[in-house]
Amino acid sequence: MSGTVYGIGVGPGDPELITLKAKRLLETLPVLAWPAPLEGEGLARRIAAPFIPEGRTEIAIRFSFRPERDDTAAAYAKGARDIAAHLAVGQDVGVLCEGDPLLFGSFIHLLEHLPDCKVQVVPGIASPLAAAALTLRPLATLDEAFVILPATRPEAEIERVLSVVEAAAIIKIGRHRDTLARVLDRLGLIDDAVAVERAGMPDQAIRPFRDAVCLPYFSLVLVRRST
Amino acid sequence: MSGTVYGIGVGPGDPELITLKAKRLLETLPVLAWPAPLEGEGLARRIAAPFIPEGRTEIAIRFSFRPERDDTAAAYAKGARDIAAHLAVGQDVGVLCEGDPLLFGSFIHLLEHLPDCKVQVVPGIASPLAAAALTLRPLATLDEAFVILPATRPEAEIERVLSVVEAAAIIKIGRHRDTLARVLDRLGLIDDAVAVERAGMPDQAIRPFRDAVCLPYFSLVLVRRST
């Protein structure tokens, strides 16, 4: 007897950007797990809150979110053990994931600790899609190449990738903002680049990238070559 | 007095992958427009059908879908005129979009014909996300670069892009299947490549790309370098 683990994309922040399938599972699964900081409920739980019935069994998978992230593997391992205990008695478990579970999602790492489970994934609205909706700018069209690229890469690699595509969403900006600015300037892309902060959340904002000297963690930069 | 045009992403096929926001707009907007072939209702209308009340004013934007697509601009122009007539009398108009409106969506071209309108966009589940959910394979994680790349590009450009990223969803395969196979073979990616057909639809299927000699229009190929 064994349950199924569901990776449930809850989208970028607005509870109305949850899919009908995610809503149904949130309302019906007996156990829900979610990543969170050491205290409090975390973003995925906050997004899903309107759809979670009272009294549901919940598992918090807690991380310190320190830059060195040295507690990460231990947190996933413990979360996976807690989830596996429910699966073993035949209970299905939903894992809440910001955005989409399989696109830079922590669910990917959690799955590595649940190697023999039955798994299903419900896709969610990824933040680049929500950001584009806010700017009303196309992400890509016709035969353009569109890349989602973490700014944590070395400067030369960022430049190499951006130089061969027409459009990009650059994520994980943080302290790499000035590196990215240099690359975009060299490629002639900086004037059209738009910074989107907290796409899909109530305090979402868009600014020209040039004016966005300091960007919060939940921000990304959209660029597209003029055609 | 002028209405707003809403680009509504209806996702890849499964009506349960529509967002709550899209559902609300489908149920309440007075006018709905959708792309379609010369006869019949088209995929976006079929996906949204469970949520469209009877008697709603609907505008079909019809294309021949011939390879040369020489009727495309005229169809968008006519669709935009029909939509603008409703906006002018203060009616909001929803435009149904398969997947996401701003990621390779026909909504992008329609907007070019509606330059001075109030616009809002509701993001939708893009097909690469639905395809990944089906395969249970990560699209990308950590600092990987993930590209969405149309196979309609010249072979050398496909190779140049795929050689600098860790992961890709290759779309618009059709008659470019063998070109793509050559590129993936040269880059050592062909054995891990997976073909996903009609992701999110009832007859969805996944096959190793090597075995997928003939791929339908609604298919894509996922690749990711082994890490």
Topology:
The structure is a homodimer of 227-residue chains.
Chain A: E1 4-9, H1 20-28, E2 31-36, H2 43-48, E3 57-62, H3 72-88, E4 93-97, H4 107-112, E5 118-122, H5 127-135, E6 146-150, H6 155-162, E7 167-171, H7 177-186, E8 194-197, E9 205-208, E10 219-224
Parallel strand pairs in A: 1-4, 1-5, 2-3, 2-4, 6-7
Antiparallel strand pairs in A: 7-10, 8-9, 8-10
Helix pairs in contact in A: 6-7
Short description:
Chain A has 227 residues and is α/β, with parallel strands linked by helices.
Helix fraction of chain A by DSSP (H/I, runs of at least 4): 25-40%
CATH topology of the largest domain in chain A: Cobalt-precorrin-4 Transmethylase, domain 1
Low-confidence stretches of chain A: none
Oligomer: homodimer
Measured distance between first and last alpha carbons of chain A: 57 Å
What portion of the residues of chain A fall into strands of 2 or more residues? 15-25%
State the name of the first-level CATH class of the largest domain in chain A. Alpha Beta
What does the largest sheet of chain A look like? 5 strands, parallel
> Could you say which structural class the secondary elements and strand pairing of chain A correspond to?
alpha/beta
Total helices of chain A: the number is 7
Rg of chain A from C-alpha positions? 19 Å
| CATH superfamily membership of the largest domain in chain A | Tetrapyrrole methylase, N-terminal domain
Total domain count of chain A: 2
Quickly give the CATH architecture of the largest domain in chain A.
Answer: 3-Layer(aba) Sandwich
According to DSSP, the number of beta strands of chain A is: 10
Rough shape of chain A? elongated
